[in-house]
Write a structure and sequence with these properties.
Helices cover 19% and strands 28% of the residues. It has 150 residues and is an alpha+beta fold.
Amino acid sequence: MYSIDFDKDLIKGVKLIDINTLNPHEKIIEKKKTSLAKFIKSYEDYYIISSIVCCHKSLLIIDGHHRFFALKELGFTKVPVTLVDYTSESIRTGKMNPLSKDYIVNVGHSPNLLEPKSTEHAVYCTASKQWQPIILLSSMFKIETKQINK
């Protein structure tokens, strides 16, 4: 169940994926990542987290860079991912002067990441006829925190 209406063909899968196969395209705000990792680590048995939104073909991280880097720091080898069709016109990369999706994918396959928050991915809501934050395509996952070295 989603809180917005969108082209259901956008979602290509929801599953746990090897963290090392994902491709970030942006740097992160270190303090935000550290706070999130510390927060996740504080849970005794498990934590509920939004999945990372990724392109189903390139495994480019579209939304969830801080979650990705926090989970990686905590030693998770598999992470929850919602796979989407990034080529769809129902996904945009920003309001003003958006970067091309091809450019963003290429950055994701390079060592030179964009600055934090360089993109503002959004998905088109067919009911409201407005663009909404793409995190709304995420699914909630339970991740085990027992194995994290406290």
